[in-house]
Queue: 2 jobs
Job 1
Amino acid sequence: MSAAAQNITPSPDAQSFLNREHRLLIGGQWVTSASRESIDVFNPATEGHLAKVAAGGKDDIDRAVSAARKAFRGEWSKLTAYERTRLIWKLADELEANLALASELEVLDNGMPLMLAQYSIASFGCEFLRYYAGWATKITGDTIPVSPTGVRNGESLTYTRREPIGVVGAIIPWNAPLIMATLKLGPALAAGCTVVLKPAEQTPLTALFLGELIKRVGFPDGVINIVPGYGETAGAALAAHPDVDKIAFTGSTEVGKKIVAAAMGNLKRVTLELGGKSPMVVFPDADLSRVIPGVTRGAFFLQGQNCMAGTRLFVHQDIFDKVVAQVGDLAGKFRIGPGMSPDSDLGPLISAEQRDRVMGYVASGKQSGAELVCGGEVLPGRGFFVKPTLFSKTNMDMQIAREEIFGPVLCAQSFGDGELQAVADEANKGIYGLSGSVWTRDISVAHRMAAMIDAGQVSINCHAAVDPAIPFGGNKQSGWGREFGREGLDPYLKTKATTVVY
Ligand code: NAP
Ligand code: MG
């Protein structure tokens, strides 16, 4: 196919949104950036210009943080938990009601296939908001039977309150922009915090669209502020801001370390969802009719621009050649093209820079002696398309097997009979520990191996199972803390213990 040949015109609604002047949402108003600078936004499938978006800088972050602080002290803190629930739920409903436009904007901006955008926004983004809407009314403390010094038993009472942490700075990446925004907003709003959200420079459009919905839903002014801008300016200013109480960051491990350094000034809390290089371990008894589609999708979902992507395939030597051949075969059949085309299974990478980075890794893989099974090429013409690429005979001394590529590159290596721990040790090599999967019909091997994999979440006979209720986050340099589920609320709350002596 020729990706570039299919130039799909945006719908009138999308075009009308793109044509708008895109400002910053601060204190409930759409405002221009102090510097008047802007970011040009491009469609990665066509390389065409989509929109111009105001670029926030330090001054705008200052304004947004003070609006968030004012809202936190003001009307927002006076709402009941039921009212917060209703507002978050209403935002989910509003997003669902605008699913077609939200998904189209996501595809134009990010490149992902339309079906995937629709499915993920509806079944994950909206449900994630609803999941946390439900939590707002279930945040409770404890009563604790204590006897403080000098007080007789039964003559005092201690109770804890779980209070919102305050103003949250949320900094998100470009790989699933709208979902990422909902992941940060859900628990923050449920807990009663206010937010300054900085979307990625490459993909600010759906965050701004969400801003329109937020205004329609009727959140008090300043509860959610949206400031697109560059990481080095807007992002860094938010991370370092002395009046921000917590940063919720999703992005690369490299930038995660900068966030930690910037947060030191006021010792703000930090949660980090960072990179990954997740193993998929296939035992010889596994059901190949599930393994082949499962690991192939696990590797190439979102063109591999997915932190949980299974990018290292460990297969038992008895079935290694067969599995590698079948995965290569299936990967070669994926249809690559613009996300707006219903025929596309995979879209483009986000940018020319990302394409070149991925192709640099492909060259490194070839040089280091890995065997190229399929892919390894860009598609000619416009758009940043790279064919799904599978390298066999890789090992952890190779750069392609060690480093996060964040593109459609899968590395396969075999393992033999012997101790499970030896397989786990190989799978656990490297600095990341985000995700992993085990493929076998033997429940004993499955659970032992799952326990041995050093990662925040492991799936058995599937890869990267996600649900708003499943705690999500990374070990080692894949992150700090957990999002999702009950644990995902904790970073947005602080405990106060109150003791009364009768
Ligand atoms: P990135 O370069 O780390 O950027 C992430 C966000 O941080 C962007 O908004 C970026 O701004 C901003 N930023 C950059 N420098 C900054 C600084 N000095 N201070 C504050 N903010 C700064 O990551 P990316 O390339 O967008 O995304 C890919 C990475 O995200 C991969 O490593 C992937 O594994 C990771 N990721 C992790 C998860 C997870 O949940 N664990 C999920 C998705 C992605 P710009 O707008 O200027 O880029
Ligand atoms: Mg960047």
Job 2
Amino acid sequence: MEDSRSALVLFSGGQDSTTCLAWALERFQHVETVAFDYRQRHRIELDQRLVVLDELRRAPPWADRLGEDHLVDMAVLGQISETSLTRDVAFAMEKDGLPNTFVPGRNLLFFTFAATIAWRRNIRHLVGGMCETDYSGYPDCRDNTVKALQVALNLGMDKSFVLHTPLMWLDKAETWALAHELGGQTLVGTILEHTHTCYQSERGPRHPWGYGCGECPACSLRKRGYETWAKHAA
Ligand code: ZN
């Protein structure tokens, strides 16, 4: 039997997955985290996620609930995918309307590997930061994709996993609002200071919305969302 009080969060160290982690820590008694090293250009996120975890381990009552962290080496995904997240090419839009930051199958693989870990750890709930509202149209972030994958994983592993995507219908401003609701200014501060979103690995000057180049698609979304939220929150 899976433990329905436990969750495993796909935790990359960005704004979205940190908010998802806080969401899970509010709901589940035991929460583990997993990240994937697919030789992403912004590998700095793998360092930053450890800083975020350290911060959260200092925040009662979440500290007691935060369990093991897993890092999965998925170098093969970087080897077989031709994208601007895994190769040194400029960000651009493809003819099919998808940005070349799209790594085909990435989220399908992440959830599948997470389920493999959850299976071993007797964890029932899987949590990911996929979002349909305010993102780049990645087809593996869509609600139907995640729901279909839940069915496939449960059939294929003979389990009753529940895949949660708390950000699915939120825009970036609402994601900042959710973080504030979950952890107040402390969590917002942790996200601003320590999470990494920028595709370019830029962590130079600190902007009001955190660190990043300010220009890449990930920074643009984060910046715009923060400014909208901050204006309404003020
Ligand atoms: Zn950027």
